Amino acid sequence: xxxxxxxxxxxxxxxxxxxxxxxxxxxxxxxxxxxxxxxxxxxxxxxxxxxxxxxxxxxxxxxxxxxxxxxxxxxxxxxxxxxxxxxxxxxxxxxxxxxxxxxxxxxxxxxxxxxxxxxxxxxxxxxxxxxxxxxxxxxxxxxxxxxxxxxxxxxxxxxxxxxxxxxxxxxxxxxxxxxxxxxxxxxxxxxxxxxxxxxxxxxxxxxxxxxxxxxxxxxxxxxxxxxxxxxxxxxxxxxxxxxxxxxxxxxxxxxxxxxxxxxxxxxxxxxxxxxxxxxxxxxxxxxxxxxxxxxxxxxxxxxxxxxxxxxxxxxxxxxxxxxxxxxxxxxxxxxxxxxxxxxxxxxxxxxxxxxxxxxxxxxxxxxxxxxxxxxxxxxxxxxxxxxxxxxxxxxxxxxxxxxxxxxxxxxxxxxxx
Length: 417
What we know:
By secondary structure, the protein is mostly beta strands. Helices cover 3% and strands 48% of the residues.
């Protein structure tokens, strides 16, 4: 597929992205008619500079010098004869009437985005689609917490993306991970304000691609409405999410720090009578510490049709000091391994036969038995709600494999978070 880059400047941006540095020929956009006065549209000048740089042999640099340059949507395409670096020393500012566009980074191989600050976007700050071996280093986002649909970085159908040393404050997900994402590494990201670092939602559309190989480590979330989350729709379409690991994460006054939500339904328009068809497996939450704004700190609510498998909670040290008591955890329809300390709630259940079971202390388990936690299912608040653990109506049943399951009446839908 031809290399193609589409970047939509939908806010006040400071941009400096590069694709492999070399000894470049320089293409200054002011030589193509751009004026640094913040009034004249520089979109055509940027596009013309790209066209000449793309046709030049060897590496090239497109320079946006000091000053303020007004620009709307700029479409740039390849393949090009050499590597191209775009360096912004000034400010690229979108016109106030710009309604958004499709793009940012589409179908790029071996890309580097470094030391960008993006301010006050109307919609997603960055969308990454169909890319491979692409790195964000030192990326910063800042927008009011009340801004809707302003995901910091959204990734879909891409392989080998790395996000490191980023600082993202937004009104939606700091990082959202869509279908088809493989081998994604997120490290040393400061998230907040915002929603969370989230995988999904998955299972809403037919023919979605699997998600696999996701690692989130050494991150800090501050004051977010959720922490780290996997979310899938009930009833709709199949998919898989596997080999996903959250580790060495610090939560600072975060609501709902750890969530797997397979009843995700933000607008209350789902068939909640049927379970999610997305299979989640090989997931770990390890060495996660800090403070929670909600008593329910861990919620693993998996599909009753295809329960989560090979899920591990290890060394979860989350505290809650509010009026609802100590920190709690809740797990449904999940084959779980517990290592070390976790909040009270998700107990190991070792099944002896279809009529009896034994609850065991996690510290005494030798790792050789099959078990599933048994806890009340969420009621009116849904997963991620402060009301999700209050007054559930629960019945228990043991299936023919000897695995006890929890069921609850009530509405488990919730609003978008």
